[in-house]
Here is the input.
Amino acid sequence: MTTTVSSSRFLRFVEAFDKLVDRAGGDEPTILAEGKTLLHELIANDDWLPDCCAQPHHQYYQQYLLHADPNDRYSVVSFVWGPGQKTPVHNHTVWALIGMMRGAERGERFSVPEGDQPMQLLGEDTLEPGDIDMVSPRLGDIHRVSNAFDDRVSISIHVYGGNIGRISRHVFDVATGSTKPFISGYSNEPSKAAS
Ligand code: FE
Here is the structure.
């Protein structure tokens, strides 16, 4: 098991999430509904996140692995946005809960590509501290996320239904619907620099 954070608040969250995934047995609606409450409690206070997992990079948004379930049932990541940084349009292939902790981020949801047609923007939301978004192949799994601020760092805490840094998924070209595979890795692992 990998756990980067030692605060009791975070460890209580992991303990509760372990029990939830044990009990839910892969039932996504239950995990999302109850996991949302757990994540909301976690991000209500942000003094538990160590500085090492809150560092922006001048060029790239950062994804720090905070906890990986030993059976790859879920993982917890801090997403650290430098000013104006954004993801490409991407999918996840697993459920995800996104909890805003500091600053704000904008999420744009896109349709599944059809042939070589341009992808449609389905909607746009801004998350403020305490807000939680969710995605999954069942609910809609393709989005682009950006820091809502051009002049400050934003941080959100994500929980994914797998070891997200190891999962092969896709980035999309909105204009053509074409896809490219990618594996994100994590910012706090040596192999990231080597790969
Ligand atoms: Fe995402």
